[in-house]
Amino acid sequence: QVQLVESGGGSVQPGGSLRLSCTASGFTFNSSGMGWYRQRPGKERELVALISETGRSFHTVDSVKGRFTISRDNAKSTLTLQMNSLQPEDTAVYYCWSSKNSWYWGQGTQVTVSS
């Protein structure tokens, strides 16, 4: 069955960095576009970044552009989100997402940015 397992979250001070990882199983990873979503406290889940099946094309939303980088390793079925210059407004639960299995949401990983 489909599984997306997020890891790498934690607590950091403003300006810090974190690297999130997602390990995928139960489907053909290299045939699925992938992405990261987040849900901030009291808000709806929102898109953060998307990446194509090959990794050659990607999109990041304006609020994280220049700070967050999405990448993937198809050989290892892993998705990564490098987050730099973190700000308190980045505090959220971050979720990995598969376009081929868009109905599926894992547990997510908590990111807290606070001084």
Task: Give a topology summary.
Elements: E1 3-7, E2 10-12, E3 18-25, E4 34-39, E5 45-51, E6 58-60, E7 68-73, E8 78-83, E9 92-98, E10 109-113
Parallel strand pairs: 2-10
Antiparallel strand pairs: 1-3, 3-8, 4-5, 4-9, 5-6, 7-8, 9-10
Give structural notes:
- By secondary structure, this protein is an all-beta fold.
- The chain is built from no helices and 10 strands.
- The radius of gyration is 13 Å and the shape is globular.
Going across the biggest sheet, name each strand in turn.
2-10-9-4-5-6
DSSP strand (E) fraction?
A: over 45%
Percent of residues in helical segments?
under 10%
Average of the residue pLDDT scores: 97
Label the overall shape.
globular
Number of DSSP strands? 10
Largest sheet: 6 strands, mixed
Please give the radius of gyration in angstroms. 13 Å
- Give the low-pLDDT segments: none
N-to-C order of helices and strands: EEEEEEEEEE
Q: How far do the termini sit from each other? A: 40 Å
- What is the count of helical runs? 0
